[in-house]
Amino acid sequence: MKLGKVIGTVVASTVDSSLEGAKLLLVQPLADDLTPSGTPIVACDTVQAGQGDRVLYEGGREAAMALANWFNPADATVMAIVDSVDGES
Amino acid sequence: MIAGRVVGTITATAKHPVLVSHKLLMVRPLNAAGQAEGKSTVALDMVQAGVGDTVLLLDEGNSARTILNDGQAPVRAVIVGIVDTIDRA
């Protein structure tokens, strides 16, 4: 999983039918020092993350498997809301 | 698998059920010279590793599900070993 920060919510009324009902979040990937790094992605949410939350997200097939109906095209899914990051860096 | 160094611990209360009761550790890859370099991956700890340990990081879904013995687990990154020594040429 990777660290990210929710910087927005995405509403898309016209989506592929298999994405209907999915809550979409705009997530900014974070470097290890928690500064923004790279291009924001749109991820599906499973933990009711909100604006400004620091989160963990997973990509690939696991992103789809994390959703209730796992046969879906999700390629990034928020898996956790981070309470704290304690490290040596 | 890759060799990496544990550089941080993540705590998260609100998370996907599959993550419950697993320690979440940040693992930064080791470069050819053995320095920890680049962006970390957050992995499920299966071997009680701690910050500063050199570990084996496995980052592939099918293998992770085999280790977790759960065919539906939306997990990719798991720590599967603590490295004692790496003898380089």
Number of strands of chain B: 5
Order of helices and strands of chain A: EEEEHEE
- Give the helix tally of chain A: 1
Most extensive chain-chain interface: A-B, 33 and 29 residues
- Portion of residues in beta strands of chain A equals 35-45%
Q: Report the end-to-end length of chain B measured between terminal Cα atoms.
A: 20 Å
Q: What Rg of chain B do the Cα atoms give?
A: 13 Å
- Helix segment tally of chain B: 1
CATH architecture of chain B: Beta Barrel
Strand content of chain B: 35-45%
CATH superfamily of chain B: EutN/Ccml
The assigned structural class of chain B equals mainly beta
What percentage of residues of chain A falls in helices of 4 or more residues? under 10%
Radius of gyration of chain A (CA) equals 13 Å
Mean pLDDT of chain B: 96
Low-confidence spans of chain B: none
Tell me the domain tally of chain B: 1
Classify the oligomer. Answer: heterodimer
Structural class of chain A: mainly beta
Tell me the major beta sheet of chain B: 5 strands, mixed, barrel
Q: Give the overall form of chain A.
A: globular
What's the short story on this structure?
By secondary structure, chain A is mainly beta. Helix content of chain A is 7%, strand content 40%.
